[in-house]
Specification:
- The complex is a heterodimer of chains A (494) and B (492).
- Chain A is built from 20 helices and two strands.
- Chain A has 494 residues and is mainly α.
- Chain A has a domain of 225 residues.
- Chain A has a two-stranded antiparallel sheet.
- By secondary structure, chain B is mainly α.
- Chain B has a domain of 220 residues.
- In chain B, helix 1 packs antiparallel against helix 5, helix 14 packs parallel to helix 20 and helix 15 crosses helix 19.
- The chains are: A mainly alpha (494), B mainly alpha (492).
Chain lengths: 494, 492
């Protein structure tokens, strides 16, 4: 179904854009220190937008809009819906933290997050080099500002600089790569690019050079080794609320852009980019896991653990096409999608606990700050434990099925190298188990140092409990989400 | 909801309820009674499994099968045969014992302690009744979480080292098994059903690799020599209840895995490597028995004796005759009763004196005559005296071994001498002789709750010793079926 302009397809985006601009204006009139009215209006907007996305996902048809620059398919609608919810949950966790740190002097936290979310939407739905790139920029630009939101804090400012410089570099890589590919194929449209490459009448040198730059740019954004240097510093330096905003929902958009550019746009080059991703995955797993063991700061540890987790996602991307047929593509890409969604779900709860533990003047970001948490608040400790075991991939938590489906896709790809990769990935997750277990150890086995009471508002407690219950519940009943991912990926080939 | 589901989820449900109760000290009484209620209910729902079990049939019984994860064709598939029946009953029984035994000792976070044990017991019953490999793996791995917390929170001075060693050591093994399971899923055309895998033809090389992947998971768990080193460390640091469950049930998860995975799925590799397995088992029986002899710490001594006793189990499996395999399974159950009793007995002394050193005791019989009588019975069972549970299984395995090879039988039989050596010598040093010091002088005999715990275990140990028929009868058909299956080559 192709129409030149299809406004209905982008209704959620339009609503978000309109509401965000409205909220930015409306916020000027809000006088309360915690910005209650802005907060409620933001949450309401997000809830409606998420609902619209899920309605679109329920329709299940693939719709193109604006001369094929935008595509709304099942994968896009699902990812956008989950990203919206992730931002919503992030804001719920962030509000008391931000309020205590003078970050709510204006409503920037809310409006910038919403604009960033709009960027994610465009990126997820982009079917054209330009829309994809614009979406990426719209996602990251508010991000730079968000990191620097505590402008008097030295560490945050430093992190913002680092994020900005390296982020721009990555965007430059990507843009340069895209322009080379455009030069080689003469098309900016994903379908056009794929058609041109398939024809085989293309200058391979320029195309390959472009591909290398594109993959490097994507690796930068995903935080894969050796393009990972910014991840620990930004995770550590940014205010925790913003760390979650950067480390949570945008991962879904990053998954989508990899799918769009590499799988939809450059599938004929799969042999080349699969090898690159394989190398990136192996070093990410190695460096991420080993470096995480050495961390004492919880946020840095989680940053390195993210790098390792992204290694897993890259592994499943690398196992998509083997032999002459693409029979493994569904398994590979839907396992990557499942992995990413459950990773974001777990990350939300992990940082949620950190955010709710933070007090005025106390960041709660050292691993030792969690000491004896079980005695102070068994519920928080329980949620954190579920998240740690989930990230470590221990059943019956959802992270186990994520790892399981990736390993299944790898082994199904067959061949000596894939068996080697599987065993390697498994050994790396053993190392991973060590540092995740250490967090559990601190919470349960150590005596509390801090004795300050832990008070969280009921709405935050409720959302956190729900989030933790989902980490366990999806582990007990993973079938539904797996099926959704499967169908979303399947719909891409039609 | 089927009976097996009830047996699994009743204790888990009570466990979750306990966790939700919050850990206030003034509620500890209510928490304990609720835990007892939960464990007794858990035991009660397993009774119909025994009464309704059709003896003499090798078929899987009490089958429940529902599609669970459609994307990977994973089924929630439960069923038991004669091999698993007693292990399920044993698990539910030991759970009641552990709740009773921890009544007074645990004063901190009682609800979490009891909750962890109840959940653990449900998960272990799940392992013994899962007929879908992925379901098995989920239960098998999930048991690590409560055990890790039990050791780490309520353990001894070096608990953190022990908890990590326990978790990482066993995780290493089971991750390799996970790779094997996924491989089998792919080659079987997308099925995790164990019965399907039993029929799957496999070439020699994959069989060998699969066999060793399973070996990694199960040998660590049993534990077989030389990967047994985690067990003594963990036993020493774990709280009494943790040690009892670890020795009585968790070790059996590994042995049970051999029966359900290694033997029937890779029979040719199992035959090919049986020499190695028998060799390792004999080393465990003899060498580890000798190591047990020189221990100064009672828990370490019993831990090493567990390794030696489990050596009989793995020995029995890899001799492939019905006497040795049945004997090994009987030994698993008997060891469940005896090792739990031994560790709980050490717990009784430790609660009073706070020392596990043999040298801290002497002449306990003078101050605790009732307890010493129980201890004597369990010690005798531990060294395999006829008329106790410990005798039946070992004797069957030795008979089976002699059938295969006289020398294997002879070496295995020598273990009875070492077993008698270390068990009786420990009994002599701890219980006999004059009162050794003031601590022992101040001992008071076991109270009625401790008496009940000891008496329940003593009844089972004696009953199994003098009348093993109910135990062997139910498993005969299943064992014969298993051996018939293992004897047929699966090479294409």
């Amino acid at each position: 179904m192709i129409e030149s302009n299809n406004w209905a397809a982008v209704a959620p985006e339009l609503l978000l854009l309109g509401m965000t601009s409205l909220i930015a204006l409306f916020d000027l009139a809000v006088k309360t220190p915690l910005r209650g009215a802005t907060y409620r209006l933001t949450l309401l907007t997000l809830a409606v937008v998420a609902a619209l996305h899920f309605v679109q996902a329920g329709n299940g048809e693939t719709v193109y809009a604006f001369s094929n620059m935008i595509v709304v398919d099942a994968m896009a609608s699902l990812l956008k819906g989950f990203a919206t919810i992730a931002v919503l949950v992030t804001l719920v966790y962030s509000r008391p933290y931000a309020g205590a740190r003078d970050m709510l002097r204006a409503g920037d936290l809310f409006t910038l997050s919403l604009y960033s979310l709009l960027g994610m939407f465009v990126m997820i739905s982009g079917h054209h080099f330009l829309t994809l790139y614009l979406g990426l920029e719209l996602l990251t630009l508010p991000g730079y500002a968000l990191v620097a939101l505590r402008r008097d804090e030295l560490r945050s400012t430093e992190a913002a600089m680092k994020y900005f410089v390296l982020g721009s570099l990555a965007s430059g890589f990507l843009l340069y790569g895209l322009s080379l590919v455009y030069g080689a194929t003469g098309s900016l449209d994903l379908a056009g690019v794929q058609e041109a490459i398939s024809s085989g009448m293309i200058d391979k040198t320029v195309l390959m050079l472009g591909l290398v730059f594109v993959v490097s740019g994507l690796a930068f954004k995903l935080g894969a080794v050796p393009f990972h240097m910014w991840v620990p510093d930004v995770y550590h330096g940014a205010p925790t609320a913003v760390t979650l905003m950067i480390g949570g929902a945008p991962k879904l958009a990053a998954f989508a852009i990899v799918m769009r550019l590499l799988v939809e746009g450059m599938l004929p080059l799969v042999w080349h980019w699969q090898q690159m991703l394989m190398v990136l995955a192996v070093v990410s797993l190695l460096i991420g896991n080993l470096a995480a063991v050495a961390q004492t700061n919880l946020k840095r540890m989680l940053a390195f653990s993210t790098i390792a987790q992204m290694g897993f996602v890259l592994l499943s991307f690398a196992s998509g096409v083997v032999g002459q047929d693409g029979t493994n593509m569904n398994a590979a890409y839907s396992s990557a999608m499942f992995y990413m969604i459950t990773y974001v779900l777990t990350t939300l709860a992990t940082f949620g606990v950190i955010l709710l533990l933070a007090r005025d003047g106390f960041e709660s970001e050292e691993i030792s700050d969690l000491a004896g948490l079980n005695q102070r608040n068994p519920m928080f400790a329980g949620v954190m434990t579920a998240c740690m075991f989930s990230l470590a991939g221990v059943p019956p938590l959802v992270g186990f099925y994520a790892k399981f489906s990736v390993l299944q896709s790898l082994l199904n790809a067959g061949g000596g190298i894939y068996i080697g990769l599987t065993v390697f990935a498994v050994m790396m997750s053993l190392i991973g188990a060590f540092y995740y277990l250490r967090v559990v150890k601190v919470m349960y086995f150590d005596a509390p140092v801090q004795t300050a009471a832990i008070a969280a508002a009921p709405d935050q407690r409720f959302v956190l409990a729900l989030n933790g219950a989902l980490v366990l519940g999806l582990g007990l009943m993973p079938g539904g989400l797996m099926l959704l991912c499967d169908q979303a990926i399947l719909a891409l080939w039609h | 909801m089927g009976l097996l589901s009830l047996a699994i989820w009743t204790p888990v449900l009570f466990g979750v309820l306990l966790l939700a109760m919050g850990g206030d000290k003034r509620d500890a009484g209510a928490v304990r009674w609720l835990a007892l209620l939960g464990s007794v209910a858990g035991l009660a729902v397993t009774v119909p499994l025994y009464t309704g079990f059709e003896t003499g049939s090798a078929a899987m019984q009490f089958v429940e099968r529902v599609l669970w994860v459609p994307a990977f064709n994973i089924h929630y598939h439960l069923a038991i045969d004669g091999i698993s029946l007693w292990l399920v009953l044993l698990t539910a029984f030991i759970n009641v014992i552990v709740v009773l035994a921890s009544w007074e000792v645990i004063q901190e976070r009682v609800n979490q302690y009891m909750g962890a044990f109840l959940i653990l017991s449900g998960l272990m019953i799940g392992v013994f009744s899962a007929q879908d490999a992925m379901l098995f793996y989920v239960f098998f791995e999930a048991t690590l979480i409560p055990m890790y917390l039990i050791i780490g929170i309520w353990g001894g001075p070096n608990k953190i080292y022990a908890a990590f060693k326990f978790f990482l050591y066993t995780l290493l093994g089971s991750l390799l098994m996970l790779v094997a399971l996924i491989y089998l899923y792919n080659v079987s055309g997308g099925s995790f059903d164990l019965a399907t895998w039993y029929k799957l033809p496999l070439a020699a090389q994959p069989q060998t690799l699969l066999f060793f992947a399973f070996f990694a998971a199960f040998a660590v768990k049993i534990p077989m020599w030389p990967v047994h080193t985690w067990l003594p460390d963990v036993h020493v640091e774990a709280p009494t209840g943790g040690s009892a469950v670890l020795a009585a049930i968790m070790l059996k998860l590994g042995a049970y895995g051999f029966l359900r995975f290694s033997l029937p799925i890779t029979p040719d590799a199992a035959h090919q490597w049986s020499g190695l397995m028998v060799g390792l088992s004999l080393v465990a029986v003899v060498y580890v028995g000798l190591v047990a002899m020189v221990q100064q710490d009672m828990k370490k001594l019993v831990a090493y004796s567990s390794v030696a006793h489990m050596g009989f189990v793995s020995l029995g499996f890899f001799l492939f005759n019905d006497l040795s395999v049945s004997g090994a399974i009987v030994q698993m159950i008997a060891h469940g009763f005896v090792s739990a009793a031994m560790f709980l007995g050490i717990g009784v002394l430790y609660d009073r004196v706070h020392s596990r050193e043999i040298a801290s005791y002497g002449g306990v019989i003078n101050t605790m005559p009732k307890f010493a009588a129980f201890a004597l019975l369990f010690t005798m069972a531990n060294c395999g005296l006829p008329g106790t549970a410990g005798f039946v299984g070992e004797w069957m395995v030795i008979l089976g071994a002699v059938k295969v090879n006289f020398w294997v039988g002879l070496i295995a039989a020598s273990a009875l001498i070492f077993g008698a050596g270390y068990s009786l010598w420990m009994f002599k040093r701890v219980y006999l002789g004059p009162v050794a010091n003031d601590d022992v002088k101040a001992l008071h005999d076991i109270n009625s709750r401790e008496f009940l715990v000891m008496a329940l275990l003593a009844v089972m140990v004696l009953y199994m010793g003098v009348h093993p028929k109910p135990f062997t009868d139910v498993m005969d058909a299943s064992v014969a079926e298993l051996l018939k299956h293992v004897a047929v080559s699966k090479l294409p």
